[in-house]
Amino acid sequence: GFDQLQVFDMSDELRKELAPTGVLRAGINLANFLLVSGRKGQGDPEGLAPDLAAALAKRLGVAVSYVCYNMPKEMGDAVESDAWDIALMGAEPQRAEKIAFSAPYVEIPATYLVPAESVLKQVSDVDAAGVTIASVAGSAFGLWLEKNAKFAKIEQAKSMDAALEMLVAGKVQALAGLRQRLLSDRDQLPGSMILDGHFMTVQQAIGSPRARGTRCAAFVAETVEELKTTNFVSSLISKFDLDGKLVVAPAAEPGSKRRKVGEGQKTIAILGCGAMGSVYAGFFAAAGNEVWAVDVWKEHVQKIREKGLRVEGPKGDFVSHLEAREDTSEVPPCDLVVIATKASGVGAAAQAASKLIKSDGVVLTIQNGLGAGDRIAQYIDTSNVMLGIASNFGACMKCPGHAEHKSMNLIAIGEMTGGMTDRLEKVVSLWTTAGFNAKAAEDINKMIWEKLICNVFVGGACTLTGLTVGEMVDQASSKQVAFSCAQEAYAVARAKGINLSFDDLEAYISKFVSTVRGARPSMAQDHAAKRKGEVDAINGAIPLEAAKVGLTAPVNEAVANLIRARESTF
Question: Are 381 and 299 in contact (CB under 8 A)?
Answer without folding.
Answer: no
